[in-house]
Amino acid sequence: MSEHTTEAVVQAPAVQDESLILEAVKEFFENRVAAVGLVIFIIMIGVALFAPYITPQNPYDLMSIDIMDGKLAPGSKSFDGSVTYWLGTDSQGRDMFSSILYGLRISLGVGVVSTIIALVIGAVIGLWAAFVGGKTDSVIMRIVDLQLSFPAILVALILLAILGKGVDKIILALILVQWAYYARAIRSNVIVERSKEYVEAAKCLALPQRRIMFSHVLPNCTPELIVISTVKVASAIALEATLSFLGLGMPITEPSLGLLISNGFKYLQSGYYWISFYPGVALLILIVSINLVGDRLRDVLNPRLKR
Amino acid sequence: MRNKFMALVTVCMLLLVCAAGASAETLTIGLKGEPTSLDPHFHNVNANNEQAIYVFDKLIRQDSRQNLMPGLAVSWIPVSDNVWEFELRKGVTFHDGSPFTAEDVKFTIERIPTVPNSPSSFTGMVSAIKKIEIVDPHTIRFHTEGPAPLLPRNMATFNVVSKKYGKGASTADFNSGKAAIGTGPYKLVEWKRGDHITYKRNDNYWGVKQPWETIIAKPITNDGTRVAALKSGDVDIINFVPPADVAHLSKDSKLTLSKSPSTRLIYLHLDSDRNDTPMVTDNNGKKIKNPMKDVRVRKAISKAINRKAIAARIMDGLAVPAAQMLPEGYEGTSKTLKPEAYDPKGAKALLAEAGYPDGFKITIHGPNDRYVNDGDIAQAVAQMLTKVGIKTEVNTMPKSVYFGKASALEFSLMLVGWATDTGEHSNCLGALLHTYDKDKGFGSANRGRYSNPKVDKLLEQALVTVDPARHNALLVEAVETGMNDIGIVPIHYQVNVWAMKKGLDYNGRTDGYTLPREVSETK
Q1: Cellular component GO terms, alphabetically (chain B) (predicted)?
Q2: Within this chain, do residues B30 and B82 fall inside the same structural domain, yes or no?
Q3: B231 to chain A: which residues are within 8 Å by CB?
């Protein structure tokens, strides 16, 4: 650890050189399960990005769906014989395969975008609080405490009830429930880093505070940030699914994974299991793969666990 | 010692189990809808009216097929053209033991138009009455301005409250149970909003002795949860079984199902009044003049809807495509009206003729916890309208939010339902198609503000025509006029299904109510 930091002082901002990154990548792939998780995650991002080119149907276009194809079992042909529904259809005649890919788009998009924005906001606020200290720090941290004392789902439910429906509104709600978490995590990290010799050295060189904050301290906090945000992407996706399961968030004609599961929920006992089952499986795989990657990243990037 | 103690515990537990088994006198009902209030005059809506019948009585009852039966009144005759005389039942007492008299009836009728903030009231049912004359404590006369042939039908829609408790009582007093003192078969014990309403048997009830000691009515809005609650034994009977579940529930050896056709019409109301309607734009999102003022556009919307497909695919066959507001056989139904055939080409042609060859954009609003498959029906309608060029977005919401907004005219196209309580056409004509007139109680649910002077005139004429044949002919003409002008777009009549555990029997009702007094044990 100490070797690592002295190096950082000498070389100023560049904390990790290429060989360090390479080493980390190598170490990451030593764990087969995590490697599989990463591959699945990348595939899911791929199919979500290219959904319009892969799917046989745009499930959000009312022109291309027909209730005459409603509740068809997996493998059935459509009413006019033009499409085969490999994963069946829901009550409105939406192809489940297409709906799941489009749903993944929403889930991933909402999860990643909201996490990045929340991370940036949280990081800046946390860093600022830690550096300025005193009253500002107390006020900010009490606000953070207050927000963290409410369950995220509750805050998000209230926000969405006020904001209404739409992707932008879900993202906004997720940012508002997540930023505090990052602010807290970064602040504690920064306080630890601030007392280290490299910061003192930088101060002795009379570098401006902003430069110390962003160029010296922040890069040393990034491993933690990466780990937290990977795990948090998964929880943001789960939160979005929960919200849309409860009927908040996406409009019913543009179902995300949570809403697809909720639509199929009332048919679970009627034998139309596929309406809930496959979106559920997709959600499960997505979240598990992200968590596998996140776990492994934590192991790799945490210096304390180094051999 | 320890063994003895264990034995004692076991015996106690066995006793408890036996006691629980013996009190089969509790009936737990899983209901799709929770009432908005227990004030019987606050909100004329199915869930409220249903609960009101547990606690209160009407002057005239309806049997399970909506034929009139004596209730608190034993007989009713017109003594002259403008006067009805009702003879009231003797020996009836309220839950507190005070006697029921003509004073209570008078008080009830006077209270109805005065209930504050009522989202839809019973005012239309009593507006014909100009003077109430109490002849003696058990004889009452209603003087009307003109002949009022429908008075008995209207008297069969609302419940009679006690003057002693109702005087000055607010809707909140009824909800808390303070004023909910009726003559009905059950007494209100408590209402825990969102969880349950508990009733106790009224042992001094004037009618047949009730089979149930305690009634627990639980609102379980989610269809899947309601079915699961029945299967797990949490509730004994549920209403509005989701069509998709009928097939597998009927195979369950522990359950019994009963089906009944209903007067519950599911229809679209369209804003045909305002020039500037909130939810319509052209294809580029710019405001346009309300296209639905044009009957051709309304007709196109009706033609675009594939009613058979909705009945077959969304409702799993438990719906009958509708052409008017009541199924055939009820008073005032037209024999010539047929459900509009699905004709997307015809719809497009009509839109082009009306000046919308490329259609326009609209949002359809609907509840998602009120009618059977309401959210799915709204989506299906949107799908069908989009296919003829009317690009439709769907916005569904809980009924608690939806109806307030719909009544405040915040929508342009809305999915609604209407169950004709009176079992004849003047009720739905007056509420849905007659020009909105708060004072006369007309158009109380006319959320599209449809207005057609010819319909108004025919209906008002029918309301004062005593001769049954002439009365019926006028209603039929009014219905045909309104429906051919597409005042509303009828979709279907619900077929209602109840499911209960084996050993219970419920015949079902065309009005869709689940009345404990008609639930019996089969031995």
Answers
A1: ATP-binding cassette (ABC) transporter complex; outer membrane-bounded periplasmic space
A2: yes
A3: 269
Q: Does residue B121 or residue B389 have the better pLDDT?
A: B389
Q: Is residue B22 predicted with pLDDT exceeding 50?
A: no
CB contact under 8 A, A62 and B382: yes
Q: Which of A67, A93, A269 sits opposite B248 (nearest CB)?
A: A269
Determine phi and psi for B367, rounding to 5 degrees. -80, 160
Domain identity same for B187 and B280: no
Structural domain boundaries of chain A? 29-44+98-286
> And the tokens for B189?
């014990």
Q: Is the pLDDT of residue B264 over 50?
A: yes
Q: Are strands B26-31 and B214-219 parallel, antiparallel or unpaired?
A: parallel
Does residue B476 sit within a domain? yes
Distance from the Cα of A35 to chain B's closest Cα (Å) equals 40
- Same domain for B437 and B490? yes
- Asked whether the beta carbons of residue A252 and residue B222 sit closer than 8 angstroms, the reply is no
Q: Which helix (H) or strand (E) holds A187?
A: helix A167-194
Query: CB–CB of B387/B305 below 8 Å?
Result: no
Q: Residue B482 maps to which CATH number?
A: 3.10.105.10
The superfamily (CATH) of domain A29-44+98-286 is: MetI-like (1.10.3720.10)
**A63 with B223: Cβ contact below 8 A:** no
Closest CA to A92 of A119, A116, A118, A64: A64
A198/A207 Cα distance (integer angstroms): 12
Domain count for chain B? 2
Residue A52 identity = P
Could you report the per-residue pLDDT of B212-244, keeping only the tens digit for each? 999 999 999 988 899 999 999 999 999 999 998
- From chain A residues 61-80, the ones with a CB under 8 A of any chain B CB are 62-63, 65-68, 70-71
For residues B307 and B212, membership in a common domain is answered with no
Domain membership of residue B226 (yes or no) is no
Nearest one of A305, A288, A220 to A39, comparing CA atoms: A288
The pLDDT value recorded for residue B439 is: 83
Which residue among A63, A91, A272 sits closest to B314, beta carbon to beta carbon?
A: A91
Domain final residue, candidates B155, B189, B219 = B219
Measured in Å, how far apart are chain A's first and last C-alpha atoms? 12
**Do residues B7 and B120 both lie within one domain?**
yes
B521 occurs within a structural domain? no
Helix (H) / strand (E) element for B68: namely: strand B68-70
Mean pLDDT of all residues in chain B?
92
> Are both B213 and B330 inside the same structural domain?
no
Identify the band that residue B1 occupies on the pLDDT scale cut at 50, 70 and 90: low
Which residues form the domain of B88? 2-219
- Residues B302-351: pLDDT tens digits? 999 999 999 999 999 999 999 999 998 888 999 999 999 999 999 999 99
Checking phi first, is residue B67 left (phi over 0); if not, alpha (psi -120 to 50) or beta?
Answer: beta
Q: Is B122 contained in some domain?
A: yes
| Cβ atoms of residues B161 and B108 within 8 Å | yes
State the pLDDT confidence band at B247, using cuts at 50, 70 and 90: confident
> Quick one: pLDDT band at residue A266, thresholds 50, 70, 90?
confident
Q: Lowest mean pLDDT: which of A134-143, A212-221, B262-271?
A: A212-221
Query: Stretch B141-155: mean pLDDT, rounded?
Result: 92
A70:B227 CB<8 A: no
Residue A279 contacts residue A230 (beta carbons within 8 Å) = no
The interface pTM score, or ipTM, of the predicted complex is 0.80
A164 touches chain B (CB under 8 A): no
B460 and B397 within one domain? yes
What tens digit of pLDDT does each residue of A79-97 get?
888 888 999 999 899 999 9
Please enumerate in sequence order all residues whose Cβ is within 8 A of that of B441, keeping only pairs 6 or more positions apart, or say none. B113, B121, B123, B124, B125, B126, B127, B430
Question: Which of B223, B248, B383 is nearest residue A92 as measured by Cβ atoms?
Answer: B383
B345 & B462 share domain: yes
pTM over 0.90: no
